[in-house]
Each structure stands twice: as structure tokens, then as C-alpha cells.
Amino acid sequence: MASEREQPIQQSESLFVNARRLLAIESSCDETAAAVISEQGDVLSNVIASQFELHQEFGGVVPEIASRAHVARILPTIRTALAESNTKVTELAAVAVTSEPGLVGSLLVGLTAAKTIALSLGVPLVTVNHVDAHIFACGIGKETSIFPCVGFVVSGGHTNLYDCRSATDFSLIGSTTDDAVGEAFDKVARILGLPYPGGPSIEQAARSGDPRVWQMPRPMLKKPGLEFSFSGLKTAALYAARGVPGPDQLTTTPPERVADLAASFQEAAVDVLTVKARRALDKTGHPRLCVGGGVAANQRLRQSLAAMCCEARVELCIADMEYCTDNAAMAAIAWEHLSDGNIAQLDADVLPGLIRHGALQKS
Ligand code: KG4
Ligand code: ZN
Description:
Elements: E1 21-26, E2 31-38, E3 43-50, H1 52-55, H2 63-84, E4 92-100, H3 104-121, E5 125-129, H4 130-136, E6 149-154, E7 159-166, E8 169-174, H5 181-191, H6 198-206, H7 231-242, H8 255-284, E9 288-292, H9 299-312, E10 315-318, H10 321-324, H11 334-339
Parallel strand pairs: 1-4, 4-5, 6-9, 9-10
Antiparallel strand pairs: 1-2, 2-3, 6-7, 7-8
Helix pairs in contact: 2-3, 5-6, 5-7, 5-8, 6-8, 7-8, 8-9
């Protein structure tokens, strides 16, 4: 591959007047991603450099390794996104970047690249909230707006329900008090000795299992409201896998238990997500449920939400598979911020935690 220095980003002063393309950059966790999106919302390219192989042996994302890999991959990824969409840098109208929430070092790499490109081209910089973008991803490729809706983000970092009145007006109405649902999938996969990343491995193992074999708890279902908790479910899976702590506790899970346990765990998680999503629909009265984030790739969850939405007579919009897990195309939400005049300054900083939309509204 040519060195970065051989292909400097071109500078230009006044060629952007009619430009209608946005370069979006995403580096909040372990995917280095760039996309080019037209003002009409068409995804012209969507490039993801996965770091899967770097974190696999650790069974989870190692922040320091992630940031270093972003540094090495970000410019080639951006170049590929521009090339695949046949976009010259001088055609860019703006640069969007995820600035919150995520791993601080990872976010900084994307933000620094985006600032540099925006400054050198003299185009606006737009910062994007990753969780909002996961909801916005449900509308990619759709003719009509997905708003208003209940937004549901089910990922490795979040299990959040939102009252979304418009693309730029979200309130957090439900969240997890401990683990995110994707984190629980990942941890239970490790307990069962299944490969990283855990969500797809559990789903795969569950296909040959019986979800009725193990009685898993459905945390927070008896409590009213929209809060989640997945740490108890994870512990129940651990005890079922290894036996309760004591002298006879197993160090590994007997293979014959794995499929039934994966299916039983998955069913409990899906039940909780489905019931809480229904409560959020009833509470807000919105006509649509929009679900994004990595766990939205789970087919059992998709089926369960589809049945619930059919019964509740609301529309279900789940992000297309390629837009469920982390990607830069979902930063198309930046067009909405741009039209509101919401442009970031060059001293914008990253916000690693989820500080947004005011406090959680108690339900
Ligand atoms: O949205 P995402 O790519 O990154 C975050 O923002 O966290 O989500 C990653 C999470 C991981 O926990 C992964 O195990 C989970 O999504 N995941 C799944 C599936 N595919 C990915 N969980 C359950 N079933 C799946 N098919
Ligand atoms: Zn994500």
C-alpha cells in the first residue's frame, strides 16, 4: 500500500458550493469505518476495517490495541470510501464523525482525522452521537421518515430505549442498570467456551438447542418501567453451565449443555427486550419501533419483535444487517444536524460516556 505521504489530501478553496456529499467517519470502538453519503441519504460507499482478529485472542476489545489499529487503518479506510464512491475530496460538503460515546482513544483517532480533513478542505465538521446513529440506521434506504418512533439500541455498550420525536429530538426513557445486552451475550459465550464475538456464537449454538431446558430468570419484568438488568441472567447462565460454587463446580461446560444453555439464555434475553419495547410503545403512543445496534442482527430477537409489533399494530423497522453493527453510513444523521445549523467547532472534544438528552426520565 502506498505510504500516507504519497497521497496528500488535496486542498481547495471554493469548489464546494454545489457539493452534496458527506464523508462520515466512525471509530468509537473496534471497527474503523468510513462512508460517503449523498444529501438524499444514499449510501455511496460503506467501508469497514474490522479489528476482529486483533481482539479475538483476548475475548473482548482491548482499548489500547483498538486505538493503535485505528491510527494505522483510518486513512486507508477513508481513501477506500472515497474511491468506491467515486468521490473527489473537493466534492465533499462536510465531514461527520462519531464523537460520543465510546472508547476515549478510539474516538480521538476518528475525531482528529475528521477535524484535519474538514479544516484542510474548509468544510463544516459535524459531530455525531453513536447511539443516535444506531437508531437513524433503521431509516437508511427507506423512502419515508422513521420519525416519530420508539428508538431501541441493543448493542455491546447499550440497551437504551428512546422517545424519538424527530431525528434530532430524542429523550432517553429506559436503560440498563448494569450490563448491556450485547455484553451479556459476549460474557455468556465466554462462559460456554464459544468464540468471540459472543452474540453470533450464541445465536449459532442456540439453533440446535432447546430453550425450555434451563429456566433462566427474566430480570426486571416484574418491576414496572423500562429499566433493564442483565448481570443476574449472566450469573444464572454461569451456574447452569458450571454448577453452583462449591467443591464440585466444573471448570468447563459439558458440551451437551452448551446448545440448550445458549438457547435458554437467548430466549430469556429476547423475552425481556420484547416486553420492555412493548411497554415503551404503550407509554409513548408512537406508531413505530426502530431497532439498531449489533444485537439487532439476532434472528430470534427479530422474530419476537415482529410478532409483538404485529399484535400491537405498530410498524417495526430494524436496521438492515449491514447497518446493525458499527458502521459509518449511520452517521448520515449528520445531514439532519447540518440542516439545523449544528456545526462543531475545531476544538470539539470526545465524550466517552453517554452524557446526553438530559437525565433518564423515570417511567
Ligand atoms: O453495535 P455493535 O457493533 O457495537 C457496539 O456499539 O457495542 O454491537 C456489538 C455487540 C456485541 O456484543 C455482539 O456480541 C453483539 O452486538 N451481536 C449479537 C449478534 N451480532 C452481534 N448479539 C446477538 N446476536 C447476534 N447475531
Ligand atoms: Zn455500536
